[in-house]
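Structure in, sequence out. Go:
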């Protein structure tokens, strides 16, 4: 696979939590592939003190020593509202990738995701890589199986370009997934035997035709068949559930998704499918705004 997208400056905010440390390891790993610079940011509630700077520098030194990466690592200490400060710093650098740790993996904590992360996801001027605690240490951040959800929108095609680039840099397999949604919940598929003969035949034919059309379109968009490490899968069900199911089946190390729209309700929800996947994924998720 040929790498066509580049990251040059990665911003990684930290609150000194374990998820933030995992996110920093991930940021350094990605920076190593792209020869990018990493800025580690901490936002203070009041004027930064010398102790704050010492702690931030210690965090950066520890992460660099553990990663053994040559990627340049800077630190930035600012005062203000965390989400707003992160967005201002991202624009100032400018950063072309933000990497954030997410807190909580189950129950209510998972569902609220975290107000800072959610605000950044809604308004970030660049792609955002969210890293759950379950992503583990850098040893597990090899990204050998990259999954990209595609619904053929412009934003998902843009996301596919990033997925191809990351897969190329990590020498990974790329699985491109398209979900066919139906008026009923799938899986499982409806019981065709309960339908009259004519309706049963018509529905089966309609399903086959939609599957064939989606497979052909997916192959064309992803250039499947031209490169042996790209596979396409057409699956059934709600898009977010299908992406998570296939990610589990394929043991994906990274999920890449595009989000359409940057204003009004679409930006507020940052895409219903992406919203649900980011909240529930057990591996990092790269979100691309179209």
């Amino acid at each position: 696979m040929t790498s066509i997208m580049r990251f040059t400056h990665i911003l990684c905010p930290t609150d000194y939590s374990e998820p933030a440390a995992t996110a920093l390891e991930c940021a350094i790993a990605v920076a190593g592939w792209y020869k990018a610079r990493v800025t580690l940011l901490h936002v203070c509630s009041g004027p930064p003190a010398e102790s704050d700077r010492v702690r931030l520098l210690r965090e950066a030194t520890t992460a660099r020593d553990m990663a053994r990466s040559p990627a340049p690592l800077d630190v930035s200490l600012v005062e203000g509202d965390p989400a707003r400060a992160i967005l201002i710093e991202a624009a100032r650098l400018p950063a072309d990738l933000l990497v954030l740790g997410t807190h909580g993996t189950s129950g209510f904590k998972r569902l609220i995701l975290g107000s800072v992360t959610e605000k950044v996801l809604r308004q970030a001027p660049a792609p955002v890589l969210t890293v759950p605690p379950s992503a583990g240490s850098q040893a597990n951040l090899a990204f050998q199986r990259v999954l990209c959800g595609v619904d053929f929108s412009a934003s998902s095609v843009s996301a596919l370009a990033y997925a191809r680039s990351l897969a190329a840099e990590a020498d990974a397999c790329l699985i491109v997934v398209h979900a066919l949604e139906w008026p009923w919940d799938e899986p499982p598929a409806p019981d065709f035997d309960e339908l009259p003969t004519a309706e049963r035949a018509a529905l089966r034919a309609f399903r086959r035709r939609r599957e064939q059309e989606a497979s052909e379109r997916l192959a064309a968009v992803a250039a499947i068949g031209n490169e042996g490490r790209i596979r396409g899968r057409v699956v059934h069900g709600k898009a977010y559930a299908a992406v998570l199911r296939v990610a589990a089946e394929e043991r994906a190390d990274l999920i890449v998704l595009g989000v359409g729209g940057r204003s009004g309700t679409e930006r507020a929800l940052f895409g219903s499918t992406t919203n649900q996947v980011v909240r529930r994924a057990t591996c990092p998720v790269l979100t691309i705004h179209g």
